[in-house]
Amino acid sequence: MGYPEQSGLTRWPLTLFIPLSGRRWAWEQQSKFLDRQHYEHRQLRLILCDTSGDPEFSNAIREWLLGCDYEDVRHLQFPLCERGLADQTRSIVSVERDVNLAMCRIYNRLRAELQTEWVWILEDDVIPPDDVLPRLMSHFDSNVASVSAAYNSRYDGLPLAWTGDAVVNGGTPRCAARRTGVERVRGTGFGCLLLRSERLRQHAFSLPRGVRYYDPEFFKQIGDQWIRLCDWSCWCQHLDPSKPKGYV
Questions:
Q1: Of 113, 45, 51, whose CA–CA distance to 73 is shortest?
Q2: DSSP SS3 for 54
Q3: What percent of the chain has pLDDT over 90?
Q4: Eight-state DSSP code of residue 176
Q5: Where are the domains of the chain?
Q6: 50 bridge partner residues
Q7: How far apart are CA 13 and CA 28, in angstroms?
Q8: Contact predicate 99/86, CB 8 Å
Q9: CA 139 to each of CA 111, 127, 166, 175: distance values in angstroms, whole numbers, following the listed order
Q10: Which CATH superfamily does the domain covering 3-247 fall into?
């Protein structure tokens, strides 16, 4: 019996948290993924964190929830910024900071909502393989804090994972080259991330002076005693409204 079974990871309820920014172009594919993903739906506590402030979008979420087979669900309406912020041009410094501050507020809210020992975070424009969760689970051990699936950034086409220092070149996350297998990394984006809830609870998300990105800062703060892994075999589709088939 391996660590995932011994620790209860494969038996206990697990939180699936999805921050929804109001991207109607992504929700259709995201909801279909939720319907078909392989992990036992009854074992997941599904939290849809709806920050859209869009009544029509929120109604679409509620309609899907009425017909889904997830038994423990919450539609958390948490409007916190202007509509469409997530898809504004990130090269504008003020937009980049507003997006990262919004994500800090979202994940601080998640810290208050967590009631399980493990949390699976899935961004609303990331579509993983249907069997991604059991694959990520299989890599956990007593000293592993997180396991991430792999996906490319829409902005530079590089994987959102880094193997060296968190930031270089004026603050751009250092991305690792696309690889194979499972690799120890310094950190990853939060696009499709399985994480020990205690690591999230113990981190207050913020942007201290000189910090541009919330996710490298999180991995910097959890300490080098904790291993972070990326499973390069679990490639996700990163949806892009300008590309009908998304960005892989």
A1: 45
A2: coil
A3: 68
A4: P
A5: 3-247
A6: 20, 77
A7: 26
A8: yes
A9: 24, 20, 23, 21
A10: Spore Coat Polysaccharide Biosynthesis Protein SpsA; Chain A (3.90.550.10)
